[in-house]
Amino acid sequence: MLNTLQDRVALVVLASGTSSRMGSCKFLLPSKHHSSLLEAILSQAQKTIINSFNIVTSAINSSYVYQKTKNVIHKNFKIIINPHPERERMYSLQCALQQLKNYDYCFIQNADNPFFEAQLINEMFASRNDADFICPVFNNKGGHPILINKKLINALLKAPYDSRLDFELKKFTTKRIDTKSENVLINIDTQEDYHNYLNTKE
User: Is the pTM value of this prediction over 0.85?
Assistant: First the structure.
């Protein structure tokens, strides 16, 4: 684990979607080794440089998210309510970033990707001074998690809530980190996606 004495590093997990294509709350589905996909993310994240854990969810799912988080993370976590889950992804992110203005760096992960690999996280963080935005890449395709600095945290808070995150990120310097792990591209939206995930290698 890297030294975090000088840097305040947060994780934001975006978990306020409606999961309409899945038919049930996807991040509460069992992972391979945990009782939920959310717990899989957090279990891996607590082994990294991160020292603040923030999960954005809807009011209707907040009690479930709190319990799943508490199963893994025992301190330095917040459950942040998105009062308008029907709004775009940017709005969910802004709900969290409002509470992270004093942080130096922030990793952003989608709740429907249960992979949060410590080796990749450390490699991304080691490049934190090379650009405003660090992105893992597999076969020339960008994936998650991503890493943003304080400059970008403050800029995203000023962006229109209905803007696209990828559009806003293009305005800043970027470093792409090549990875051999296809897991950075995982996006579990449907039952088929979920079954494919269960068959992936770790």
Answer: yes
